[in-house]
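Write out this protein's structure.
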Amino acid sequence: MPAALLTQLLVSQSKKGRRSTPEADAIAHLTERELEVLRCLMKGLSGNEIGATLYISPNTVRTHIRTILRKLNVHSAATAVAFARRAGVGALLAVQNDLGAALLEGPQAALGMAPSR
């Protein structure tokens, strides 16, 4: 499942029965690639490490980070990471990791169903 779609789904689910936070609303405006860069920043990767991980040039990493900072209206990568944590992106990472592991086991496992035999 694309990260942007999963983010929108989780943000929409979190809006049911409670108010959305400004942080979550801002995060929802990031592209899938910007979310990938932000997740790498949250893992503590450097710009060169992010580039190697995502197969993009360091200049492209800098461009994505500048765009993330502008969209989140923050002035540093560290502030963007704190902003993302307040928005619950860390929890989103855990859900995605769990979902990814389940998908590797098969669609029924991802949906919490026993595999058919």
